Amino acid sequence: MSQIPELDLTDRNWVAKYIDLGKEVLYLTQQEVIGMGLTQEDILKLTEHALISHGKKEYEMPAKIGVHPLPEVFFHAMPAYVPSKNACGMKWIECYPYNIQRFQLPQTTGLLILNDIASGVPMAIMDCAWITAMRTPAVTVLAAAALHPDAETFGMFGCGVQGIEHVNYVVHTLKKLKKIYIYDINEAAMDNLIKICQPKLDVPIVKGTPEEIAKSCEVMSSATIIIKECLSVVKDEWVSQGQTILPADLNTFWDPVTQRRADKYIVDSIAEHELFAGMGYFPDGLPKVCCETGEVLAGIAKGRENKDQLIVCSNIGMSVCDVVVAREVFNRALEKGAGRKLPL
To answer: In terms of domain of life, where is this protein from (predicted)?
Structure first.
């Protein structure tokens, strides 16, 4: 009979002081997740750690798998393991682009499960919408700082939840910003973003058209709807050498010509972009990928090498970031006695 291998039980023993592992699980609502008090600086540090771990290949994360009940939607199962943070779990999340119009519900909702590494039993079930809303802009602005640290102008396309958080986060990493431009098809969304963000920021926020923003900004990002059709709102002729473009909405918003002619096309996960390409989200095919975002942050791959390079860095979301942030939420919840324990 083979000998049972020894395990480091330090983390399990700590968690077991708070919950009866294998018999109960901690449940956290969205408001309880928010209530754990993670600051933007906390999220940035945790997300940077996850990205660098990914860049160094110190993780396990298969490409997203999903189902598609309606033509324009997807559900994704997103598992990941980041050893350095004892973070192991899976996010189950969906994207319904027309939820707001149809049901007055968010485009994105979902749950995240964390597991004990030593025994595999579930430890926590929590809302993942807030975590997703925070780690997504964190990835964008960390990439922006790595690729264009001296930028004085930033343009944000899409002024919903993600647009608001992108504007809130970008001032933490682009320290020389002098102006932020915003655009949304919905005028009220732009007004709402300014109302929420401007009192917190010293950098002026101004509205612009897609053409004005594309011709004015050194760094731009987009967080709009995710559909297979290329809307090409920003025309390629408006985009210049030396700019940095950071889509958070796949191939939807930009002229696909821009991504193909970029000097460097960088992605957060090659495997996940290839998966989306196979699903039809890149009708003209996936552009040639230079490297991954985490490799740039880890110093393994070069980012911008001269001021004239046009760089597109597409980040569609990786579960390594989700589980690392979720594990910190879980740790704080245990220490604060937050949430409720549910029997398994």
So the answer is: Bacteria
Whole-number Å distance between alpha carbons of 338 and 33: 9
3 state DSSP class of 340: strand
Q: What is the mean pLDDT of residues 134-142?
A: 97
Rounded to whole angstroms, how far apart are CA atoms 134 and 212? 28
| Residues whose CB falls within 8 Å of the CB of residue 16, separated by 6 or more in sequence, listed in order | none
Share of the chain above pLDDT 70, in %: 100
User: Could you tell me the domains of the chain?
Assistant: 19-131+320-343 (3.30.1780.10), 139-316 (3.40.50.720)
Share of residues in the chain with pLDDT > 90 (%): 86
Residue pointed to by tokens 């090659």? 270
Helix (H, G, I), strand (E, B) or coil at 250: coil
Angle, CA 50 vertex, CA 44 and CA 52 arms, to 5°: 100
**Closest C-alpha to 315, from 189, 216, 169:** 169
Q: How far apart are CA 344 and CA 327, in angstroms?
A: 20
Sorting pLDDT into bands at 50, 70 and 90, what band is 284?
Answer: confident
Strands (E) in 172-218, as ranges, are 179-183, 205-207
Outline where DSSP puts E strands in 293-344.
311-314, 340-343
Secondary structure class of 74 (helix, strand, coil):
strand
Q: What is the pTM of this model?
A: 0.94
Between CA 114 and CA 138 the distance in angstroms is 21
pLDDT at 8 over 80: yes
- Strands annotated E in the chain: 24-28, 65-67, 74-82, 87-95, 108-115, 122-127, 153-157, 179-183, 205-207, 219-222, 244-247, 264-267, 291-292, 311-314, 340-343
